[in-house]
Amino acid sequence: MKKIAVILSGSGVFDGTEIHEAVLALLAIEQQGASWHCFAPNIDQHHVINHINGEVSHEIRNVLVESARIARGNISDVTLLNINDYDALLVPGGFGVAKNLSDFALHGSACQINEDVKQACQSFAQANKPAAYLCIAPTLIPQIYGPGAKATIGNDPDTAAAFNTMGGEHVLCPVDDFVLDQKRRLLTTPAYMLATNISEAATGINKLVQELIKLA
């Protein structure tokens, strides 16, 4: 059975992992006959957002602890991710990617990635093992794969411009499809960068995961 490592960034679209994307991806992985294990950095979130009114809540939450809600406790610190134990990597989106796994939401193309997350992701790139990034998660790719990496965040012009500024090569992509950088064995799909409902998000995610498992 092929094993997929999944890196989460909290729980909730505005300050963590986009939950629909994560659950759809985990379901698709199982439906393709593979297994998954989740990881997250053991750090405090950038901030906590009230998902009803969008306001900042003045409390402190831990990314690993919050991510465990999605994984039903089946999760480990990202520092324990051993490349030899997994055939592929998947990173769902959500603002947690741009606030917790990196500071892209604050600094755009001048962003930095959490060192533990960066090391884990780079280990898959260096081993030439396939990896998939959903929604806003492809903003991590230029710093992981270097100049020329092809990926999509859908069609948002500002995010695409930042991706290109960082050295990536952005490709426009509809919600029901994915982009494959064959040289790097790298897959991306817009998911909720374009999706207006969970069914639309599922169309591209399912296709991407099917190809990811095939490449693994």
Structure description:
It is built from eight helices and eleven strands. With 216 residues, it is an alpha/beta fold. The protein has a single domain (3-215), classed as Class I glutamine amidotransferase (GATase) domain (Rossmann fold, 3-Layer(aba) Sandwich). The strands form three sheets. It has a seven-stranded mixed sheet with strand order 5-2-1-6-7-11-10, with helices on both faces. The chain has a two-stranded antiparallel ribbon with strand order 3-4. Helix 1 crosses helix 8 (198-215). The termini are close together.
- Total tally of structural domains: 1
Query: Overall mean pLDDT score?
Result: 98
Low-confidence stretches: none
Helix and strand content put the structural class at: alpha/beta
- Main β-sheet, spatial strand arrangement: 5-2-1-6-7-11-10
CATH fold call = Rossmann fold
Distance between the termini: 11 Å
CATH class: Alpha Beta
What structural keywords apply?
216 residues; alpha/beta; Rossmann fold; 7-stranded mixed β-sheet; two-stranded antiparallel sheet; 8 helices; 11 strands; 17% strand; Class_I_gatase-like; lyase activity; ElbB; Glyoxalase; lyase
Explain the layout of strands and helices.
Layout: E1 3-7, H1 19-31, E2 35-40, E3 48-49, E4 56-57, H2 63-71, E5 75-77, E6 88-91, H3 95-101, H4 104-107, H5 115-126, E7 131-134, H6 141-145, E8 150-151, H7 157-165, E9 169-170, E10 179-181, E11 186-189, H8 198-215
Parallel strand pairs: 1-2, 1-6, 2-5, 6-7, 7-11, 8-9
Antiparallel strand pairs: 3-4, 10-11
Helix pairs in contact: 1-8
